[in-house]
TrEMBL record:
Gene3D superfamilies named among the record's database cross-references: P-loop containing nucleotide triphosphate hydrolases
Protein name (database record): ATP-binding protein
Lineage of origin: Bacteria, Pseudomonadati, Pseudomonadota, Betaproteobacteria, Burkholderiales
UniProt KW keywords: ATP-binding, Nucleotide-binding
Any one GO molecular function term: ATP binding
Domain IstB-like ATP-binding: 4-147
Origin species: Sutterella massiliensis
InterPro entries: IstB_ATP-bd, P-loop_NTPase
UniProt KW Nucleotide-binding keyword: yes
Length: 149
């Protein structure tokens, strides 16, 4: 995370494969290097934004997130497609971090399926263009770590 142009990381894999463990370990390493880190599950981030939108505090929250050297979004593309406001927020946040800070996104769906999860094709194109062209990609495979031995 100390390179001249910060990169992103996309992690995909089935439930229980170790995505959360991996991204949290990377977040911990960033903290140990005294970098600022924020971790959100996608559903929690969506709820937080909806709450802040009703209070008109989205801009302050966005500015705080943009100051973090590493933003981790877990469980991306889970559940229903995001509303237009959330899709737009994701685009603005990812775009503003390009070349300035790093973002890790983890999901059960492969990143090639994320486009169809986002309802608005133009916003989906923009988000995926920024993520795919500035990211390392890891697809975890294997059995669930939660399986009984």
């Amino acid at each position: 995370m100390t390179c001249e142009r910060p990169s992103n990381l996309l992690v995909a894999g089935a439930s229980g494969i170790g995505k959360a463990w991996l991204i949290k370990a990377l977040g911990k390493c960033a903290c140990e290097k005294e970098l600022t880190v924020a971790y959100y599950r996608m559903i929690d981030l969506a709820e937080k934004l909806a709450e802040l939108r009703s209070e008109h505090n989205v801009r302050a929250f966005t500015q705080r997130l943009q100051m973090k050297k590493l933003l981790i979004i877990d469980d991306f593309a889970m559940g229903d497609s995001p509303c237009k406001a959330l899709s737009t927020y994701l685009l603005r946040n990812i775009d503003s971090r390009q070349g300035v800070a790093s973002t890790i996104v983890a999901a059960q769906r492969n990143w090639m399926e994320w486009h169809s999860w986002i309802n608005d094709p133009a916003t989906a194109d923009a988000i995926m263009d920024r993520l795919l062209n500035y990211s390392y990609m890891i697809e975890l495979k294997g059995r669930s770590l939660r399986e009984l031995k």
